[in-house]
Amino acid sequence: MQAQPDVDDLKVIAFDVFGTVVDWHGGIAAEVERLLPGVDGGAFALAWRAGYQPAMRGVMERIAAGEGGFTLLDELHLSILENVLRDLGVTRLDAAHKRELNRAWHRLPAWPDAVAGLARLKSKYIVCTLSNGNIGLLTEMAKHAGLPWDCVLSAEVFKAYKPDPRTYLGVAGVFDIAPRQVMLAAAHHDDLAAARACGLRTAYIERPNEFGAAQPKDVSPQAGNELHVADIGVLADRLGC
Amino acid sequence: MQAQPDVDDLKVIAFDVFGTVVDWHGGIAAEVERLLPGVDGGAFALAWRAGYQPAMRGVMERIAAGEGGFTLLDELHLSILENVLRDLGVTRLDAAHKRELNRAWHRLPAWPDAVAGLARLKSKYIVCTLSNGNIGLLTEMAKHAGLPWDCVLSAEVFKAYKPDPRTYLGVAGVFDIAPRQVMLAAAHHDDLAAARACGLRTAYIERPNEFGAAQPKDVSPQAGNELHVADIGVLADRLGC
């Protein structure tokens, strides 16, 4: 059994969302199979998500070069979707159906432990999102999945994307507290490392099936995280909620 | 009985907060009397709130002149508090107690109809704040009073204060909908008029005791509001929730 962490002054737990709180792979696969019968939903989901990092890098480079403004994740998802459809030779979706499919990201299902775990944490801490998703997307997702956030914080609030320090430090700024009083909870070590570099506490959440049960993810611990837990229920246990 | 409003395409109800959802007069008066025994809490609350409009005008003028940045309402409240204490000759509060008193705005009580009314509206619409209060203030207030917002929108998100059109149109932008699909609910006709000028629907909420029971406010209807209701419960009735 791990020791109880020293978290006396902790006030806010900010959650990464895609993969950490909701199952994007399962949710997108199901919606693709609903809207595009005959298409392999799991492979489609992986291709769509694989387009995210390069697209986000492109946006950040354009902003850094003074050539572009802040872009909502909904817009980014739609442009990646166009590429995926083209690469797969799928031509049967009109603009309205593409838009409908793009909103599948607003309807992703929560991991089974998320709603109850967040409700427990909320009894003691402020629980919020910290995602590159846009506010509308995250709000509709929360309403659909029943995620009980105290507030929705996003790249859109800070006009900067993770892993930009303005996002992690922005959470502390919103609540007028020290970075150490914020914990980032995420299923991604790079996100957590960037938060830790800003002085936040970090909790790794194992999500071995983030990319589907067919290709389990390595969820080994890495040094530096205050906590490493199987799911959000265990996080609530460890924080005494 | 008023006719049922035509609101088929309504998606979001955005609420003004101070006076509309929470009782700033009663809340501040009680906290002043707790922290400053012997001081007239009601008069103190009125003086503090009376400083808001001139202070906010000053901020907006400095921003327009390129001389100042966005200022959080918490900071504005603290500077007004200094003035009120000086005007009343109250010298017994140190910096920590001033800060504690300033956070009384984070702990304001909801009007008795607010929590249940919002929960009913939330079953059918997205319900959010649209306030010049900062995100941290509004989030802590919601947690304290049990206000079940789907998300917290604020001047801090749009980097503009009401009645700037960027705030009202910003709500529509966040949810990628037309201005007519957003309704502003507020106890202040000037706020509603500014929202209507941007194409939003509007609902006036009567709060005759906003300034205390001793000086009831005129809550007469004004032309142009889609709805005029006694409280948030009646708003839910009228919208069929």
Task: Give me the secondary-structure topology.
The structure is a homodimer of 241-residue chains.
Chain A: E1 12-15, H1 24-35, H2 41-50, H3 52-64, H4 73-88, H5 95-102, H6 114-122, E2 126-131, H7 135-145, E3 151-154, H8 155-158, H9 165-174, E4 182-186, H10 189-197, E5 201-205, E6 227-229, H11 232-238
Helix pairs in contact in A: 1-2, 6-11
Text of the CATH class of the largest domain in chain A: Alpha Beta
Side-by-side strand order of the widest sheet of chain A: 3-2-1-4-5-6
Uncertain segments of chain A are none
Mean pLDDT of chain A: 95
For the record, what is the CATH homologous superfamily label of the largest domain in chain A?
Answer: HAD superfamily/HAD-like
- Helix share bin of chain A: 40-55%
Output the CATH topology of the largest domain in chain A.
Rossmann fold
Oligomer type: homodimer
The second-level CATH architecture of the largest domain in chain A is 3-Layer(aba) Sandwich
Number of helices of chain A: 11
Main sheet specs of chain A: 6 strands, parallel
Main interface by residue count: A-B, 21 and 21 residues
Fraction of residues in β-strands of chain A:
5-15%
How far apart the termini of chain A lie comes to 17 Å
Q: Please state the structural category of chain A.
A: alpha/beta
Based on Cα principal axes, name the global outline of chain A: globular
